[in-house]
Amino acid sequence: MEADIRTVNWVSGRLQAGGEFVSAGNLAVKVVLVVALVLAGGCATSGPPTPPVPPQPVAPPVPKGPSAEEIRQRAVQHFLARAEHAQREGFITMPAGASAYDFYLQVEQLDPGNTQAAAGIQTLVMQLVEQARDALRRRAFGRVSSLLNTADEIAPGNPLSREVRDQLQRERQRARQDVTLEGPGAQTVTLPERELSARSEAMVQMLGSVAQRIREHQLRVVIVARTDAEGRWVYSQLREAVPGYRVRGDIKLGNPPRLLLQKNP
Q1: Which of 13, 158, 208, 258 has a CA positioned 20 to 30 A from the CA of residue 42?
Q2: Residues 168-190: tens digit of each pLDDT
Q3: In the chain, helix, strand, coil percent, each to 5?
């Protein structure tokens, strides 16, 4: 700016030296010239224009992980698969924390009302009750009680368990009667299971011999059989072996199959 002013002064001096500033018109030309020079100087000293700022690169979006609902559903399917595997292996309630029952409980906690878990627990109860029935046929009364207690813990008040408990009570009563029959003066005749199942000729002859003894000594007989049908068949063989004689006795379910003979009171 100072250089422009000096230039204007220099031009002004030259004009005065030449004797050109003698009128008001010449003064106006001088003013216009000064303004033009100042503007030209300002444009010359403003420098080059500022280049535009390039756009900043945008980071790609971070991929999202599974939602909370997806994680829950995956956990449900995981525990269902583990429960089914443990059930196939026979791990119904043991070992603790790794049994089929424990895994079904995990599913119910994650998904209350899950139908697969409810059905699985019911299947566990049915398995326990069936094992209790097998033990009852062997007269393993302690094992029966243990299995039924476990079933009741899983599903309290279930009708399957209650039914077998009633059978257990009856079989225990029959067992006490058997002990009485096997007391002093009683005789036990064991029936070979294979021959009895086959209803072989050897079994028919054995039962005929026992029937003769029953008639001769006026004995009462209790037939302990594995099924009602088996008991009725044994009784029919005893009766047919002594025509005209009334064989007095009773049929009780139990195992092993046998005849309990005792004097009539």
Answers
A1: 13
A2: 988 887 766 655 555 555 688 89
A3: 65, 10, 30
